Amino acid sequence: MKRQEFYYELPEELIAQDPLADRSGSRLLLLDKESGDVSHHIFREITGYLRAGDCLVMNDTKVIPARLIGVKEETGAKVEILLLKRKEERVWETLVKPGKKAKIGSKICFGDGLLVGEVIGIVEEGNRLVRFSYEGIFEEILDRLGQMPLPPYITHQLKERERYNTVYAVHEGSAAAPTAGLHFTHELLQEIAGRGVEIAKVTLHVGLGTFRPVKAEEITEHHMHAEFYQITEEAAQKINRTKEQGGRVICVGTTSCRTIESAADAGGRLKAGSGWTEIFIYPGYSFKVLDGLITNFHLPESTLIMLVSALAGKEHVMQAYEEAVKERYRFFSFGDAMLVI
Predict the structure, then answer these.
(1) Contacting residues for 211 by C-beta, under 8 A, at least 6 apart
(2) Chain mean position to CA 130
(3) What angle separates helix 303-312 from helix 254-263, to the nearest 10 degrees?
(4) 3-class state of residue 27 by DSSP
(5) What pTM was computed for the model?
(6) Is residue 181 domain-shared with residue 165, that is, in the same domain?
(7) 3-state SS, residue 114
(8) Of 196, 199, 271, nearest to 236 (Cα)?
(9) How far apart are CA 42 and CA 30, in angstroms?
(10) The total number of structural domains that make up the chain
């Protein structure tokens, strides 16, 4: 299957630059995965498509202010660091721009020396291992100096940092938000629970690997980067019970989907635990647990649009995207949503 089969034309003005004032006021495209039929709604109307006995699976990871702007100690040149993955207490795998200025031994100062990073290694894709020195608590310093790591297609400044996190975000560690969850409010979640829908929380710390473009012409040659996930005993039991009782498991976002599909055995049963996943889901994949998906609109030729196509069929998905463009939906992280059932 070729990468180009997942391409679509997107006018630049449809890329959402700011979150809506009302999280649940975004638009919702409903896609019937069997027929390909679509209909148009407001996100808060999603309650009408959830049934008692269903289980919503949500990723409760929390995005950290992982973008740091500093200066190279030796020259004063501006350097930007994006924290990707914590390797040790003070050592992080990072993406450094410009990379050529971050040779091993280079030191970068942040906040007038409140935080200093030293490049101690170079790993795959040219990412740098950086050891940080500081006094106090790293998370507090990061909260003071760091910025939210918005995707490059968002050029506006984010006025409220919490808008790039879900209202149920708990476990810090992501370099990007599980954006399908941004549409939920506490009130909407209460209404959903009141209808007899189970809510199960899993954790997958989203890395930039999820968003890396597929460069291989043949999609099966693309390699996903590993991301850490965790499933509690409570979440595993809720999801397993839903399947046993004939309810639907509906994931909020591709990250929740990848988490439960990674942790399920061949029979579709989940076990509590943690690990690293490199799962790449594309058409032809047989879902072990997932029945439905709430998701945003994704970049052309991305692994994420391939995952949605695995669930609803490539033709249905690409037609739905064509319809969303025609109807002027808002795309990507701060954009509108799709429900696939």
Answers:
(1) 151, 176, 299, 302, 304
(2) 24
(3) 70
(4) strand
(5) 0.94
(6) yes
(7) coil
(8) 271
(9) 10
(10) 2
Residue at token pair 């006094």? 135
Statement to judge: residues 92 and 201 lie in one domain: no
- The whole-angstrom separation of Cα 165 and Cα 182 is 7
Nearest residue to 263 (alpha-carbon basis) of 306, 310, 303, 230: 230
Give the span between the Cα atoms of 339 and 48, in whole angstroms: 12
Cα torsion at 97, 100, 104, 108 (round to 10°)? Answer: -40
Do 284 and 141 lie in one domain? The reply is: no
For 29-83, the pLDDT digits (tens) are: 999 999 999 999 999 999 999 999 999 999 999 999 999 999 999 899 999 999 9
Dihedral sign from CA coordinates of 12, 14, 15, 20: positive
In-domain check, residue 155: no
Residue 134, domain extent: 67-145
Residue 318 near residue 31 (C-beta atoms within 8 A): no
| Domain harbouring 52, CATH code | 3.40.1780.10
Q: Is the peptide bond before 11 cis (omega within 30 degrees of 0)?
A: no
Coil, helix or strand at residue 24: helix
Summarised one tens digit per residue, pLDDT across range 172-218 is 999 999 999 999 999 999 999 999 999 999 999 998 776 678 999 99
Cα 322 to chain centroid distance, Å, stands at 23
Largest CA distance in the chain: 64
Rounded distance, CA 73 to CA 19, Å?
Answer: 37
90 with 195, same domain?
no
In a domain, 152, yes or no: no
Q: Which helix (H) or strand (E) holds 260?
A: helix 254-263
Which of these, 209, 274, 212, 256, lies nearest to 61 by C-alpha position? Answer: 256
CB-based burial label for 170 (10 Å; 0-12, 13-18, 19+): exposed
CB atoms within 10 A of CB 55: 24
Residue type, 43: F
